[in-house]
Write a structure and sequence with these properties.
Alpha-Beta Plaits, 4-stranded antiparallel sheet, 6-stranded mixed sheet, 10 helices, single chain, 13 strands, Rossmann fold
Length: 309
């Protein structure tokens, strides 16, 4: 993950609230997003992520709060805004008989002179399906087409909602590389996801949403560091006395059983343990380091997994 750049926020949100009846789908959220930043909204289904980005795009009107995207108010300047943004929605559809190239050319016609839709066909792995009808595409191919359509006008800001749903693991990694390349060209990316690995890999910063509120906002690295401190180092040492590892700075506990050693601690304990082992001439071939993941952090913050209602 590379760091985001820019000289000021391109998206400013203050006190955004959206209700459906008496139920607040989004409840007073505030945040800013910088230029050339991948900003993630992470949470379970129903947390308020999609409603938030729909308000940012002018697809839904907020009940209260202030929103500015590229200096524009999505509620009153949506037509001007849509010429400068791209969006891939969670639920999208095209006519079954439209061909891949026709869809891209059609979308490009709304913004003449912006971007190269022919290049997008190759970048998103659709060259072999150029003349295929939308109705004949697989789920993953449709998803790649929707992302390509979101980028056809060379947007300054692009919104991607569950962009890798339906993609196989190899295609997901290709998509991640392309999204990073989009950011590196100066485009701001707003990524809605409930995939922990995707958020941890891609996002410069992410907001954890729960019940319509932002409960945490930080870089993935700093979220993990702030909410979890324990690191575990494991290796084999069948006939060696390594009890001296207890004296290594940062080590909180050590267990040695059936030839397996497990050391737990905090800070740079993995580096310190490895250095101590090398200094004592111990060179295990199976040294493993278990670090807390973003999923561990999510469980601590929200109190339940993404799968729990």
């Amino acid at each position: 993950m590379a760091g985001g750049g820019g000289t000021g926020p391109v998206i400013c949100v203050t006190g955004l609230t959206k209700r459906y009846g008496a139920t607040p789908a989004v409840d007073g959220v505030s945040f800013e997003i910088g230029r050339a930043e991948i900003f993630g909204l992470l949470g379970r289904n129903g947390a308020g992520k999609t409603t938030t980005v729909e308000c940012l795009q002018g697809l839904r009107h907020a009940d209260s709060g202030e929103i500015r995207v590229l200096g524009l108010d999505p509620g009153t300047q949506s037509a001007a805004l849509r010429r400068r943004i791209g969006c891939q929605l969670q639920e999208s559809a095209l006519p079954a008989r439209i061909k891949v190239w026709e869809a891209l050319e059609w979308f490009a016609s709304f913004c003449p002179g912006r971007g190269d839709w022919n290049a997008l066909i190759g970048e998103w792995g659709l060259a072999g399906k150029r003349n295929a009808h939308f109705g004949d595409l697989s789920g993953g191919q449709r998803q790649r087409l929707f992302v390509a359509l979101a980028l056809v006008n060379d947007p300054e800001v692009v919104f991607l909602d569950e962009m890798t749903t339906g993609l196989d693991p190899a295609a997901r990694h290709v998509a991640w590389d392309l999204i990073e390349a989009i950011r590196d060209r100066g485009t701001t990316v707003v990524l809605v996801t409930h995939a922990m690995d995707e958020a941890e890999r891609l996002c410069d910063r992410l907001a954890v949403m729960d019940a319509g509120k932002i409960v945490e906002l930080d870089t993935p690295h700093d979220l993990i560091a702030r909410h979890t401190s324990e690191i575990t180092v494991r290796f084999s040492a069948a006939h060696q006395d390594v009890s001296w590892l207890r004296e290594v700075p940062g080590v909180a506990a050590m267990a040695h059983h059936d030839g397996q050693v497990e050391v737990t601690g905090c800070g740079p304990v993995a580096v310190d343990v490895a250095a101590a082992l090398a200094a004592h001439g111990v060179r295990p071939a199976d040294l493993w380091v278990d670090r807390p993941s973003l999923e561990d952090v999510f469980l601590r913050i929200v109190g339940r997994s993404l799968d729990e209602g």
